[in-house]
Amino acid sequence: MRLTTERLVLRPFTAADAPAFAEYRSDPAVARYQGWEAPFTLAQAEEFVRDVAESDPAAPGWYQYAVEVGGVLVGDVGVGLHENRMQADIGYTLATAHQGRGYAAEAVRRVLAHLFEVRGLHRVSAECDARNERSARLLTRVGFRQEGHRVQSTWLKGEWTDDLLFGLLAEEWRAGRP
Ligand SMILES: CC(C)(COP(=O)(O)OP(=O)(O)OC[C@H]1O[C@@H](n2cnc3c(N)ncnc32)[C@H](O)[C@@H]1OP(=O)(O)O)[C@@H](O)C(=O)NCCC(=O)NCCS
Questions:
Q1: Cβ distance 176 to 143 under 8 Å?
Q2: Which of 101, 131, 142 has the most ligand 1 atoms within 8 A of CB, as the residue to mutate?
Q3: Res 178: pLDDT
Q4: Domains of the chain
């Protein structure tokens, strides 16, 4: 499963990605609002890439695209396909050095195009920590609608945190296409 854009290649993870993956997941700024703890060890990264390398993007559960710029791994986009195969959750991470260039939005738009236009999904959902402004900005930028704000609903890294909930329907995606 390989998707391309003007600047990016989205492709399956391979064993060779583990060191770079461990490195950006170990950045405290990248891990701040995510479910894992920094540092993220090489052994954890090797286990992760082994698992995702075997996963099937068309099967329910999480599939992870590696995002590459000029042959360098800069981040990932995850798609959690619902059991009904008609809706999915999406998540994304970029190494700090590669943020602020529009790569995340470009990668997420490409995955959304694939999910809605090729796979025929009805809806994609996303959520982020209410303090994660870059993530909320990205979701809004690519067309998601904020649908909710759950107060103190996630216990994360020793505290209760608020979550913002977002959604995007296929018809909204089609209407927003240039
Ligand atoms: C969330 C995250 C992916 C957002 O990354 P990002 O680089 O800010 O997102 P985008 O791809 O939308 O880039 C937008 C920025 O690039 C800038 N930019 C520069 N060149 C650009 C270009 N050619 N095209 C588009 N935007 C460009 C935009 O102005 C914008 O900057 P601003 O937000 O300061 O105004 C990133 O912060 C991250 O990985 N965080 C850690 C992991 C995380 O929290 N993930 C989300 C969990 S819910």
A1: yes
A2: 101
A3: 62
A4: 3-174 (3.40.630.30)
Distance CA 13, CA 9 (A): 12
Cα-to-centroid distance, 140 and ligand 1 (Å): 11
Q: 110: closest CA among 8, 31, 22, 1?
A: 8
Atom 24 of ligand 1: nearest residue by CA position: 102
Phi and psi angles of residue 40, each rounded to the nearest 5 degrees, phi first: -105, 115
| 3 state DSSP class of 80 | strand
CA of 96 to the centre of ligand 1 (A): 10
The conformation of residue 143, written as its DSSP 8-state character, comes to T
Give the residue ranges of the chain where pLDDT is below 50. Answer: none
pLDDT in tens, 33-71: 999 999 999 999 999 999 998 899 999 999 999 999 999
Contact predicate 111/79, CB 8 Å: yes
For residue 90, the SS3 value is strand
Rounded distance, CA 38 to CA 31, Å?
6
pLDDT at 1: 82
Q: Does the CB atom of residue 38 touch ligand 1 within 6 A? A: no
Dist. CA 142–CA 94, nearest whole Å? 16
Block residue for tokens 């796979």: 119
Give the pLDDT score at 99. Answer: 98
